[in-house]
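Justification of resources, computational component.

The compute hours requested in this renewal are based largely on the per-chain cost of generating structure records like the one below. Each record pairs the submitted sequence with a full structure-token output. That output is archived, and it is also reused by downstream analysis tasks.
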Amino acid sequence: MDEWLTGLHSFWRHSRIAQATVSALFNPRNHTDLDKSGLVAENRRYIVTAETARLWISNTTRGCAMSFGRILLCVFVSLSAPCITVVNAEQDDDRVVATVLGKRVLLKNVTPASAAAKRKEMKPGEYSKWLRGYRANLMLYQICGPVMKDYAERKKLKPTDEEISRKISSITKEHVRIETNNKEELQKLGMRVFWLNGTSRDWRNAKALHEKYGGRVGISSFGACTAIDGLNAVLKEYLQRGDFVFHDPDLDEAFWEKVGRVPFTDVVLRPERVKQHFETSPWERWRQQMIRETNENSLPKDEKD
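The structure output for this chain reads:
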């Protein structure tokens, strides 16, 4: 139950950021809402100003994705994400289990808060299997996110994260008219934009990997897109180059077992659908959707019915 409550709290927290961010998007003066919310301190990597408020949409996409991932007990990665931390409530274990792009991953970073309770509830064999699988899932977050962010920067994939954010911001401001004091509508819009930024980066990365490596492409129920064989190839390249190293043999084995089971996807696209999927970018589909919604909203009520 800890994961559900933690996920709900995290999702609520990022929803508040979404509301304040979109408010700032339409009225730069409202960027102070982020400071008043007391949430800015939780992400000290970013300084919120009128000019950078729009980039919060991009930078906090991962937080929403992680929240849903915990709630629904599935793995979803915003492939531009930094590492996450889940603290073990039973023991503060600082043993280093992996090094990813020069950053240490501690055992407590991949141990759920519910470990102590689960140990009491489950039989020893069941508990060990559950904990091993859970840690492997969290290692996917710890490795795949930073690796793909680094890959996109090294290969100078276009558009960049900032360019994607600007495209989406421009389209949104062009077609959406919401009063900044309408908190409910702002929050709904904020969540849509959060997801769009994350899935847009996934789409860009997957398209580049598929063009280079070919292979299967999968999509998740959240809209995330993964070039399955391309991602596996990149992970092996980074491993061989020493960009990430496991210091725990069992976690090493569990991680590659998870990778081999087609992570992050619910459906593997047929070859003909792959081409179609990469023909139109998510932000262009967003533009088309905004135009449709604007046209529908402009119709008289009797015509809508």
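The beta strands are 96-100, 103-106, 217-219, 225-227, 244-246, 267-268. Residues 1-14, 28-91 have pLDDT under 50 and may be disordered.
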